Amino acid sequence: MKNFLNSLGTFSGHMRKVMSDVETRTFFAEVGDLDELITLIQDFIINGTVLSQTDKSSETLSLSDSNVQILLEDESVSLTLHKASLHQLVLGAVLLASVCAVFDRIESVCEASYAISRITSSSTLTILHVFAYICEEKLLGHGDDSLGKFVISLPSCIKCPFFDGAVSMEELASLLLKRLWSYALCAQCEGCSTGCCMHKFGIATYKSTTLPDGALSNLGDVLSLLELLASKMNWVWICDNIISQLLKLLEACVKETPLTAIFVLLGQLARFGIDANGFQDVEVENIRVKLSSFISGSTSSKISLPVQFAAVNALLDTMPLSFQEVCKTSGELPTRVSPSTPSDCIQKWFFFAE
Fold first, then answer.
1. CA gap 317, 38 in Å, rounded
2. pTM of the full predicted structure?
3. How many CB atoms lie within 10 A of CB 71?
4. d(Cα 177, Cα 161) in Å, to the nearest integer?
5. Cross-sheet strand order for the sheet of 75-83
């Protein structure tokens, strides 16, 4: 690991020196497209594939779906898609981090980090550490993303950049839910703190952790991090630390934008339970009941249609049937539908909502 870090530092140092040169930067700005370059490197790291020239005599050439034909100097060249090696991915990560650090495009590294974190691969932690070692505080202290310091150090990682200021998964979930709570409820009660409202509804908080000033100002960032966090944990943990709190928040939320977002997130999280235990999972059924109850009451209340659509879509995410299958009829509207099941609930909403 020590030799790897030394080599990494040497290579990235040369990269920064070249990219920091005024003439080089000017030339690059004139003949190159920085956005396109960054996008290409991001795609390479995330997809983890490379194109290599293929022998035309290969018998499998015409049978492969991964072949690409290009014209090079008036000659047709066949390229085949292959899985990139770890060394190639690391070099790509070094290139991306170095370019973004020099041109102050750290947000592009954050985007790549989020996408890579969703991939279960042996190379994921290595690439994330490459980003951290090269970008250093530019990345680790970058606004909203400073909360994303999971304890993910490599076994032999020396002075892991992610370890300083890292929090447990439970604490991170609490921090994110606290921010989500502030979006959903606290704006309605002047002088009321987020912690006050959370305790009122029985949501646990961790006194040892606080939100950095200005952190996670974007609702989408909060939801994305919650979904990413859930994707790394088991279903029981998700239910205990996220879903139970979201259901409580659902009962108290009065602002439509976060309410819609909560429904979308619940639908996404329910899929983890379905993947783990099937549609009959007890907690998945509990989510269905809560969503059905909301939808049944939404048609007679002043809930806007976008929120209703979000709730119905979330409910459909917990069911084995599509919307078309649920609402399939003989061509005549039913005279009365009793919302005794999720399917009945959706039918009533579809046929009788004003």
1. 35
2. 0.67
3. 8
4. 25
5. 49-53, 75-83, 67-72
